[in-house]
Design goal:
Radius of gyration: 23 Å
Number of strands: 0
Number of helices: 18
Order of helices and strands: HHHHHHHHHHHHHHHHHH
Length: 482
């Protein structure tokens, strides 16, 4: 053990900097993509409450679909990283082409679901008719962009696996730059433009109708396609990918390579989908506790989600670094790379928690002026600090295991930890207390459940990483050939 710690300290000197260099552009890309959702909410909210509700309800349907697609296509990253690390670059191009076929299929399926399945869901959820109609129009427009965002995510997974994470940052910023003005034109129409810049606009621009939620969906779809096509152009022209001539000639669908991608990627997509649904269901349960409680929960969760972007980005970078070194057939060093990433994420989580504690009052005041909401949100801050540590650890442990292509066990662990411990335990504590010993805890009970679920995931994933990394390092487990 002492020898391992010495080796880990030695590895941290050489491994920490490249890990951070990979993670920071990913973090910027995540923030830019989150910014698109913020812009959508802000702009539709200024138009009408009905349009805002339509976009909020619609987002709760298309976002999980997109995240499932993203997670599935993330399976390409460790495949490319291992091939690159092992010097088997000729095999990268056909693997990427198979990911593009999968992306096309997933994008079309997601679009069809958004076109055909949303109204029955709205009826089941008893969504008011005006909101349901506008939400359905919004989702029909967003559906047009699903193949585009799937294309972007597949090529982003390829680029990340090639240790080239900056394109996702710049192209996400391009998407945000397209989203803002197109949102303004399509949501508010000519009348809104005239109010902003005056009546010197051409008459045809002034005559544009205000499309509201529908316009927001069209702007989102346009941004998705711009991002996807920009990624195609970049990967075609850039010399950053060396001798991987991605667009030299197409590769037809190959059952074996698609099977490998789905074997690695689908469990990632399911795990991400499970995590998203966990937070969605908890939000629905908390809705019965009153508007002050709902607002406090959303403020606390939103702020911690912003801070969580860096640990999440470290997780995605760690997948690449683990895949690279494992592809080099250096399982002993890979073990050090993985655990160095976990130590680094723990330090970042402690920093985030400290920042949360020091800035809680002024930041909460930016979200709301309601004293009752502020007071309740502040009472959640201590729980949010613990939440940061547990969440950062579990997401980076999962990221390291993905670098090993070990994703099915991660999926099972997250299913148990999130839904059974996190959702079940949180609902029990929030609504019923604990066997008469503790009174129902309300929103605090749900947060305790979240912490318990994430902590359980971290402990189980940590043990899984210990076994996999040690097993490959000492030769009792086979190192994958990529």
């Amino acid at each position: 053990m002492a020898t391992f710690i010495v080796d880990l300290l030695s590895a941290s000197r050489t491994e920490t900097r490249p890990l951070i260099r990979l993670a920071l552009p990913i973090c910027g890309a995540q923030l830019a993509q989150a910014g698109m959702s913020v812009v959508d909410v802000m702009m539709t909210g200024r138009l009408s409450a009905t349009d805002l509700a339509a976009v909020s309800v619609g987002s709760s349907l298309w976002l999980p679909l997109m995240l499932f697609m993203t997670g599935t296509l993330m399976g390409l990253t460790p495949i490319v990283a291992q091939l690159l690390g092992g010097g088997r670059t000729p095999r990268i191009r056909p693997n990427v082409h198979q990911a593009l076929w999968v992306a096309l299929a997933l994008g079309v399926i997601a679009a069809l679901l958004l076109w055909l399945a949303v109204m029955p869901i709205f009826r089941l959820m008893a969504v008011p008719a005006p909101v349901a109609e506008r939400a359905a129009a919004y989702l029909a427009a967003v559906a047009l962009g699903m193949p585009g965002v799937a294309l972007f995510q597949a090529l982003r997974a390829f680029s990340d696996g090639m240790n080239h994470t900056r394109p996702s940052l710049w192209i996400s910023l391009v998407g945000l730059a397209v989203n803002v003005p197109s949102n303004f034109v399509l949501i508010y129409g000519g009348e809104g433009l005239t109010g902003l810049v005056g009546d010197w606009l051409p008459s045809w621009l002034q005559a544009l109708p205000a499309l509201g939620a529908l316009g927001c969906g069209l702007a989102t779809a346009l941004s998705f396609w711009v991002m996807g096509l920009a990624m195609v152009a970049y990967t075609h022209r850039s010399s950053a990918y060396g001798d991987v001539a991605l667009w030299h000639a197409p590769t037809l669908p190959q059952k074996k390579l698609i099977g490998e991608l789905l074997y690695v990627g689908v469990p990632i997509g399911v795990a991400i989908f499970v995590e998203v649904t966990l937070f969605t269901l908890i939000a629905l349960f908390i809705a019965s506790l009153g508007e002050v409680t709902v607002a406090a929960h959303q403020v606390a969760l939103n702020y911690t989600s912003i801070l969580f972007m860096l640990p999440l980005s470290l997780s995605m970078a760690l997948t690449v670094r683990v895949g690279n070194t494992l592809g080099q057939r250096r399982p002993g060093h890979t073990r050090l790379v993985a655990w160095n990433g976990i130590v680094l994420c723990l330090l970042v989580a402690v920093f985030n928690s400290t920042l949360l504690w020091l800035t809680a009052e002024p930041v909460i005041a930016l979200y709301t002026h309601d004293v009752a909401v502020q007071r309740l949100t502040l009472s959640l801050v201590v729980l949010a600090m613990i939440f940061q540590v547990s969440d950062s650890l579990q997401v980076n442990l999962a990221g390291a295991l993905r670098g090993y292509k070990d994703t099915r066990v991660v999926m099972v662990i997250t299913l148990i930890a999130y839904w059974l411990v996190g959702l079940g335990g949180g609902h029990g504590l929030g609504e019923y207390g604990l066997f008469g010993l503790i009174e129902p805890m309300g929103v605090h009970g749900y947060w305790v459940g979240l912490i318990a679920g994430l902590t359980a995931a971290a402990l189980l994933l940590g043990e899984r990483l210990r076994r996999v990394a040690k097993g490959m390092a000492n030769g009792s487990l086979d190192v994958p050939h990529g």
